[in-house]
Amino acid sequence: MRADPIDIDCDVLCGSWPPRAELDFSWPAVRARLDAAGIENALACSGRGAWFDDADGNAETLALDNAIPVGTVNLRNALRATAVLDDLQAAGVRAVRIFGPLQGCEPHFPGYRHVVDGILGRGMVPLVEGDLRHCWQPFADRGARVVFLDVHAYHLADFILLARREPGFVASTRLLNAPDSIETVVGEVGASHLAFGSRTPLHDTSPSVLRMRHARLSDVDWTAVTGGTIRSLLEKT
Amino acid sequence: MKDHPVIDVHGHWGPWFFAMDIGDVRENLRVLDEWRIDLQIVSASEAVTYDAPGGNAKLARLLEDQPRLRGYVVCNPNDLTACEADLRRYLATDSFVGVKIHTSYPRRAISAPQMRDLFALLNDFDAVILIHTWGGDVLDLPRLLDANPRLRVIAAHMGADRWDLAAEAAKDCDRLYLEPSCSITDAGQVAHVAARVPEGQLLFGTDATLIDPAVSFGLVEDARLAPATAEAMYWRNAAELFGLQDAVRAS
Known about the structure:
The structure holds two protein chains of two kinds. By secondary structure, chain A is an alpha/beta fold. Helix content of chain A is 40%, strand content 16%. An eight-stranded parallel sheet of chain A has the order 1-2-3-4-5-6-7-8, with helices on both faces. In chain A, α7 (156-165) runs parallel beside α8 (181-189). The mean pLDDT of chain A is 97. Chain B is an alpha/beta fold. Chain B has helices spanning 25-35, 45-49, 52-63, 80-90, 113-123, 141-147, 163-171, 189-196, 214-223, 227-242, 245-250; strands at 7-13, 39-44, 69-74, 96-101, 128-132, 152-156, 176-178. In chain B, α5 (113-123) links the parallel β4 and β5. The two termini of chain B are 17 Å apart. Chains A and B meet through α7 and α9 of A and α1 and α9 of B.
């Protein structure tokens, strides 16, 4: 099993989470979990933006120490998405997380499309929640660089088919949990299509970390999946 | 790595219909070695998803020369005649130690009358059952156990997204066991269950080779269980439930 540090976790939350109010979502507690797991950097955002208010949530996110900030935009009130995205861009934020299922917004809704256009138009990287088989379409055929956070091992064929024609489509490793899923993606389309993610602290951290540390990858590919791919996406923003 | 044995009570052998190359028994043995699992109790994927008698027969042949594997006889609640024949054929052997029941593929909920009749049949065989649970249906198991006093039942995935209900169901029902395998990795679920369910009812399952054992090992690791509780969960309870003490010593 590899013991090297994991450079970047692309799927980290903090703040508060109403259905799991008993969990400690404070940033110091989250950071401690990441440290204990050997994860050095995190794309993190406050749950406030997902559940309640995007602008205030982004302010909380930008105040985090030792995090790579991820913005949020309220899909349910996309009328102010332009202003929110402008503010994020001015603050140097390079990634925006889209909480479609949580906010009850389907990828074909006008507000969802408007937000996606705004993110991609600014060269930012969307981190997308939801079933890949539904949420891929607004990003297709436009050279998008996008991270799908919920690609499941059961849907691996669909992701690989998309990745073959979309060089910027990246899957988080969290749900790629069949014994050969990570290896199959790297073998079929390359490590530039994978990024490590754990969804700490909403999900336990060790399942994703153990799978990553046991992945049967070359050193070069392992380094890419555990940080290189994300760094490359963000550097292009 | 653990310094004690591990028994995986929820394993599979055979291919699935997803994009994964895991059908050969060598993949079972690879993950057992990688994760230092001593014994794995498996059902045939073909039996679970399509043809129970056909899959059970193939598994029976495989188990003849796989000392680290034991089998579950898969029972389809829609065909009790075939179930009874397979139970008589396989449960008396050393290779098969329990019964696996799914709910999604045969499209029979735990509350279905067909499941009631199947459990009554299994009661005659003193069976240990591993049954798929997902959500609130885990609450239907205590009633079936009350009606069938010789059965012991493992709630596979410990209710998945309703592990809180699984804990409620098991804490007052000493013949209901829980195992954590699941691709859903909600934070704290194993610790929640372990704090409420008697230690003797905790088991370790992975769902391998459908799911990598990393997931279940990680769930248990993050629960920070007391060493004695962890050992009970990882192997002692399974060894007693399935009578595998000698097999563990031999592994």
